Automatic annotation (TrEMBL), chain A:
7-chloro-L-tryptophan binds at K77. This is Tryptophan halogenase. It is an enzyme of class 1 (oxidoreductase). Its EC number is 1.14.19.9.
TrEMBL record, chain B:
It comes from Sphingomonas leidyi. GO terms for molecular function: monooxygenase activity. Keywords: Oxidoreductase. Its EC number is 1.14.19.9. This is Tryptophan halogenase. The keyword Oxidoreductase applies. It comes from the Bacteria. InterPro entries: FAD/NAD-bd_sf, Flavin-dep_Halogenase_NPB, Flavin_halogenase. The lineage of its organism: Bacteria, Pseudomonadati, Pseudomonadota, Alphaproteobacteria, Sphingomonadales.
Amino acid sequence: MLAGRILVVGGGTAGWMTAAALAHKLAGTPARIVLVESAEIGTVGVGEATIPHIRHFNATLGIDEADFLAATRGTYKLGIEFVDWGRKGDSYIHPFAEFGAPIGGVPFHQQWCAARGEAGPFEAYSLPIQAARRGRFRRPDGDPYNYAYQFDAGLYAKFLRGYSEARGVVRREGKVIDVARDGESGFVRSVTLEGGEVLEADLFVDCSGFRGLLIEQALHAGYEEWTHWLPCDRAIALPCANVGPIAPLTRATAQDAGWTWRIPLQHRTGNGHVYASGFTSDEEALRTLLGAIAAPPMADPNRLRFVAGKRRRQWVGNVVAIGLSSGFLEPLESTSIHLIQLAIGRLLDLFPTRDWDPLDAAEFNRLMALEYERVRDFLILHYHCTERDDSEFWRHCRTMRLPDSLAYKLALFRERGVVVQYREGTFLEPSWLAVYLGQPVTPRRCDPRAGGAGAAAAMAAMRAGIAATAEAMPAHEAALGMPA
Amino acid sequence: MIRDIGIVGGGVAGWMAALALVRALPGIRVSLIETEGPDWSLGPFGPAEASLPDFPAWLGDHGVDEGALLRAARGSFSLGTAVSGWAAREADWFLPFGTIGAPLAGIAFHQLAARIRETGRALRLADFSLAAVAAAAGRFARPSPDPRSILSSYGYGLHLDRAGLAAALRAASGLEPAGEFNRAIVDGAVTAVELRDGSRVVADLWLDCSGPAALLASRLDQGWEDWSAWLPCDRVVETWIQMEGVPPPHAHAGAFETGWQRTVPLAGGQGGALFHAAALLPDQPGAIPLAQGRRAAAWTGNVVALGAAAVLVEPLHGWNLALLANALARLIGLLPAAPGGPEPAEYSRLAAAEADSVRDFAILHYKTNGRTGEAYWDAARAMPVPEALRRKLDLHASRGRVPLEDGELLGADDWIAALDGQGVRPRRYDALADAMAEPRLLDHAERVRTLILDAVRAMPHHGATLRAEGLIA
């Protein structure tokens, strides 16, 4: 029998995504889902950029794309543009697609590397990048690229609340003031709300954000800090009006002690600055952000503090942490919602039964740790592989000691252009290639098969075909049904 | 920069390597040096090779005509392996080349099956696999390319005479052997190979396809990982039985009191091998010693060990050709751009992960055997297993999930089929399967079963297909 009484502690994006997915997947079982949230506790959900997996999440729940975009004032996203990372003045885009196509059985990037600059920029071989550079968008129709969304996460949570409540999820308003645990097993038995109401459950999903009300404050899961690799520990969010065309892109611009984001939605642009307090002050950080936004701010700055890392165990006893309660990786690669989605998927795969086999938690923790570490390595790559020498922050990042897992991957690419493959993971070979070659990390040597007759002509034909296809796409606003 | 590649060993492994290199690396000179003795380049596993379902595509990619190869190598088709006597003395199961059942509302079929069993109904997974049902009925036709058709739910492997296969690969490569191996000249690396006629062949990179003897790799050795603690067979006898009639469209792995017999049916006979432990079944005529394991580093210096020179594991299923094909693709993708680069280490890391995954799949058959009261099998059941396999067994026992590591050769479906076939039953099924109303569940299973039976009834007999292709009279 499954653990049927489920209490989700905390609303926000993580809480409502969890409630919605469980309500959908557990329909027809005796499961009863309650979500408790307090209007007094703010959620972090600023503008949210995502990666394409969100489309699968929505599709599984039967959510129509047009309804979703209208409800969340969402826009399409073809990738992330990284500005000033490897060198000031540089720009590259990480798309959701492969680059080029193999020539003569040789991987495309090896052919491109062998051409040593004779074959134009790497991004000329990506249709989504060429479309994004032109401000254009078309949903792929059998084309080999994918897309994601940029949307208002607060509106998304509201949308999913409606979805969940329509499917029987019960919402309780109130602040949790006490957690009762079983003396013997240590399992959480109930939480008490301000006002005295006691909510019991079999399974507790902790979506309470950074503080980890259940997973940390009650169960002391512990936290593994990664600040020595990812020194950014604060952020300021600040929306402004849209100026000019709405880009089908999230932009991440490197600053002196961190980076600023720009996420264009239909009705506004989300901006923010992620920075390292060890290398700059809060005032300076705000000045940097104000200097980076395209229009006057529409709200007061929303300040956040965090510590890069993850809970040592994200599932302890009968508590599963999802969202910021499970760990924090800065949104440089738009992974926050994806990590939520992944945890929900794993929880459903390993959905507990009343006998609470500890293997469920052990496997969940193993899989989530692997995923967090792989995303972590991918983020560190952006900071470490730079020529920037213009601030203490960048000198630190350039010279820091890497995790062994990343050092191995990087060495193999530097030496020979080989991308280390793995079976499961958020970012696969094309993503690593986009960032390696964008920063840029140039392989010293490439595949000895590369080059040869016809390679240059084949590449020229690919470039031309991609440019023409991108040129023929409609403007992003038109694809959204908005006036241009 | 690599300009010359030398291959030692003119069997299936050597000629398959030659063909792959000639096609992928037109600028490189390839020399193949033959060795004496029987072709054990993939292991001394009998005169017939069985492949997994990826092999027909490999042949197509390398310009080998499947029909011509089948005719030249007494070939027939395979829909999987029948595994008898392992789960229990009288029990058998089938590892199909295709899907088993179909998921319902995102819940895997084997989880649905577990719930159906809980209602007291007996159920065999193989009954829900088109490949397994067709194999049992002796039917075969090539699958349909239409993904909507149930006839696309399976693939097929080939059964081929070893000598015929090697000859066809040689012909496709267009190479002539450079001569006969006499000895390797080694000075830190293999600097040259001396031929019988006294002449020498030099190359920048050597591929050791000489089988368990590993004529080159053993000279630069970083050691051999011994798997005998888990795979107790240390002797093998190659077998051949002349037979008329239609071969069954599947291979067979049949366990007996002190080992097991491999059978690979061809047109006109059955190739095979008898695997056993010398301590329990001594003095078998023709017994060949078998040291199962793998080379610690498949690529050391300028020598890459391929086939049985790299990994020697009993062929419970037809994975030896797949291991070799993957090794060749990996080698071509990691061809050194300059000396001293990272390619050998990365190659060896990937090769080891793949070999170990196959080892674990083989060990599974022993560890979960149901032949109680027989010393050989009781000991196998009691043995500790490698860590990665332990985790698979534990998680499967807990709730029917099999976690895959990076670089595994076999898929989750294969593991599920093998575990289920061996009679291993998880303690729980997927909690979400409870969401399914029982009639809906039974109806789904019934629909799948009916679709399969109808499709198999409409399929030609294996013999008719073989006759139509000119493979049997």
